[in-house]
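Quick one:
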Amino acid sequence: MRRAVFVTILLFAIRTFADCTGQTYPSQYTVDVHSPVCNAKTPCLQNHLVHFAVTPRSGSCYIPLYPGPCPAPYVIDSCDTLTWDFNDGTPKQIVHGSGEVNHAFPTPGNYVVNIDINGTGNIHGSAYICADPPAYVRFTKSSYNVSESAPSVTVTLERSGDTARAFTLDYSTFPNGAEFVRNLEPLMTKISFGAGETTKTITHRLQDDSVFNGDSDHSIGVLSDGAAIMDAGPVTTSNIHVIDDEQGAEFSIDDVTVPEGNDIHPVTFTVRLSKPASDRVYAWCVPHDGTAIANFDFKLQGSTAIIEPGQTSATCHVDIVGNIAPGPDKTFTVTTDPVLGPVTIKKATALCTLLNDDAIIPVKPALWFVQKTLTLTAGEVDFVTLNATPPVQATLMSSDPSIVRVGTTASAPGSVRLTAVNPGRATITASKGELTATIDIEVAPAPRRRAMR
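Output:
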């Protein structure tokens, strides 16, 4: 029975993907190109056959950042025509009814292989291939720092590996289309390496706008059409960091001291600029634990302060959780992270002090023995409890040490040691300043021993 079910499912799958008369939308499928690992570490050999195959891949989605659901893999049918373009100067290869092909790269280089499938629809795929020997191209720095007041900034590309071939790369800044993006001149140009050339320089003009807008970052990149290897692929990027040389408005946030209050209520924090900024300033105010604890003394929830152009202050809020229980003053901090806008950060953290506003009921001082009277037997030792609020060190005295002896001091709350000496009555007094406490002690005679005959 299990075998019959498996066969039924298999036939259904074949009908679904191999129906050459069916009409499907290409966007419902994806192409997975399998080939040997041909990259900078293990390049494919010149004039050596490389086997390519278009095959479905099972398992989880393998398309980076694809929002999903994953498109179904496409299965090559007998009615499909595949056109392989290896972009190496050789004619395109056309294969009918098969997803496999062999190809030898006649010249060294790096190639983007394109595959078009024409069957029930048009489907396109590609693979990046590195042929031996490779030429490597990279920026000399991951970031180029330059002052806004400089007339220009120069970046450098360097080549290594195969330096004998000539090739051309596409160079551009992102985004493009304006004469200047902030302070940097955008470029879209071709960079040509001649035979034997190992470095190329590109110069961008800079523009000093005489207005403080804060530092800016500009992404730059080169794209290879297969002639050179970039950082793990056909594209490599760097960054131009332009440092603003004008004095900007200084940003700060005020400390706050407020009564703790009762129930949940907002506390306002003011953010300030030393002078108006040229653009809108955003600050995200986030509370953090101190002696005041999140979700017990305050809500762990941030808010935004926005300072409009021309203004010099704005506010953000944090909700305080008040109570009616007496206690000490408490503190927590509020950080403004991040701050976005053309400002210089002077003070990014505020201290909030919550003042206790609940009355503390005073404790009335008292000193007392737990028992008022106690009976002992001569020769016996016993203990009695002495209490006090607040705790004290009391002085002790026996009215007749020949009847009951006691130490000179005792901690209260605590135990007092009593030693019965002879029959009779005595009073033990504990005192601390104006506070006194007494206990009456009766000492009975010790039992007589029966005479031995």
